[in-house]
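thought: user wants a sequence for this fold. calling inverse folding tool.
action: design(structure=
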C-alpha cells in the first residue's frame, strides 16, 4: 500500500527498528528571544518532544532508559538515536559533536535522526553531520509544516520557504537524507493547500515524510484561538480522506514515517478522537484497504 517506516527500515537494516527519543537539552530561536519567545503557535512547552527523555548530557544513560521502555517488545531489534525535542542543532558544534558521537556509539544504534529547523543548519553543522554520516546514516528531520507563507506566519514558524529549500539542497549535497514534517488541518488551509505542500515535497523527491494531524494542546496559543472559536479541527473521516490523497501524491520511494501525530494525551484539547491512537491507526489501515490506496498512484514525475 505504501512505503512505511517499518518496512523501509526492516528492508534496510534487516530487523525491526525502534526510535530512541533523546534530548540534547536545547531550545529554539522562536523561544529564546532570537525570533520570538512563545514558540510556534501549536507547540507545547516540551518543544514537540513529549516523549523525549529528560534532558541531561548523559546520552548513554538516556539511551539505556529509552531502550528499557521498549525492551519487552524489542528482542533482536536495533535502534535509531532520535534527538526529538526543540531544535537539536541549536548549539555550538563542539557540543553537538559530543552529543551525536555518544549517541551513535552503541553497536545496536544503526542510525542517527536529528529533529531541527532549516534556519539552524550553518555550514559547520552540515559538515559535522556529513562526517557522522560516513560512520552511520544520519537523517535530518525538518518541521516545515506547510509551504504557504501566510500559514507559516500565522504559526510563527520564523523562516521562509527558500530557507528550507536551501537547507535541503545543502544536506542532500553531502548525502544526508531529509525527512519533512507537515501538519494536516492548520487553520486557514484548504485541502488544496495541503496537497500543494505534498506536491512540492513530491517534486523534490523528499526522502521521508511525517504526515501529522494538527493537535490542539493545552497551554499553547493555538488552544486560546481554538477556545475562541477561530477555527475547527478535522474529524477522523475527513482526516483519513486527506491522508489518502497525500499518500497517492507521494513518489514511491518516499518513506512515510507517520500517518498521524503523537501529542501528549494529558494536554490534548482537540481533536479528542485522536487520543485513541490504536483505533485511529486501525481505522486508517482499514480505510486504506477498502479504498485501495496506493502510494504514488497520483504522483507525476517530471
Ligand atoms: S515547533 Fe519546533 S521550532 Fe517551533 S517552537 Fe516547537 S520545537 Fe521549536
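)
observation: tool returned 302 residues.
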Amino acid at each position: 500500500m505504501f512505503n512505511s517506516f517499518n518496512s523501509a527500515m526492516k528492508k534496510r537494516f534487516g530487523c525491526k527498528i525502534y526510535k530512541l527519543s533523546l534530548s540534547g537539552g536545547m531550545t529554539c530561536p522562536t523561544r529564546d528571544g532570537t525570533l520570538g519567545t512563545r514558540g510556534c503557535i501549536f507547540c507545547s512547552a516540551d518543544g514537540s518532544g513529549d516523549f523525549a527523555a529528560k534532558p541531561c548530557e548523559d546520552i548513554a544513560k538516556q539511551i539505556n532508559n529509552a531502550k528499557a521502555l521498549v525492551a519487552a517488545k524489542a528482542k533482536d531489534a536495533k535502534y535509531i538515536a532520535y534527538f526529538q525535542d526543540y531544535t537539536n542543532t541549536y548549539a555550538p558544534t563542539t557540543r553537538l559533536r559530543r552529543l551525536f558521537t555518544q549517541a551513535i556509539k552503541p553497536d545496536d544504534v544503526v542510525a542517527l535522526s536529528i529533529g531541527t529547523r532549516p534556519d539552524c543548519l550553518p555550514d559547520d553543522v552540515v559538515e559535522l553531520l556529513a562526517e557522522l554520516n560516513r560512520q552511520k546514516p544520519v537523517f535530518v528531520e525538518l518541521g516545515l509544516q506547510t509551504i504557504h507563507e501566510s500559514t507559516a506566519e500565522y504559526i510563527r514558524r520564523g523562516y521562509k520557504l527558500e530557507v528550507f529549500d536551501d537547507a535541503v539542497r545543502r544536506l542532500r549535497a553531502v548525502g544526508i537524507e531529509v525527512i519533512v514534517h507537515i501538519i494536516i488541518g492548520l487553520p486557514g488551509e484548504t485541502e488544496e493547500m495541503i496537497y500543494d505542500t505534498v506536491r512540492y515535497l513530491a517534486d523534490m523527491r523528499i526522502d521521508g515524510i511525517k504526515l501529522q494531524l494538527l493537535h490542539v494542546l493545552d497551554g499553547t496559543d493555538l488552544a486560546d484561538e481554538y477556545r475562541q472559536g477561530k477555527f475547527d479541527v478535522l474529524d477522523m473521516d475527513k482526516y483519513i480522506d486527506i491522508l489518502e490523497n497525500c499518500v497517492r501524491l507521494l513518489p514511491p520511494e518516499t518513506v512515510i514515517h507517520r500517518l498521524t501525530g503523537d501529542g501528549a494525551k494529558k494536554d490534548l484539547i482537540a481533536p479528542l478522537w485522536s487520543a485513541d491512537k490504536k483505533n485511529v491507526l486501525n481505522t486508517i489501515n482499514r480505510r486504506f484497504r477498502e479504498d485501495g490506496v496506493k502510494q504514488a498512484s497520483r504522483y507525476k514525475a517530471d
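thought: summarizing for user.
answer: Here is the designed sequence. The mean pLDDT is 94.
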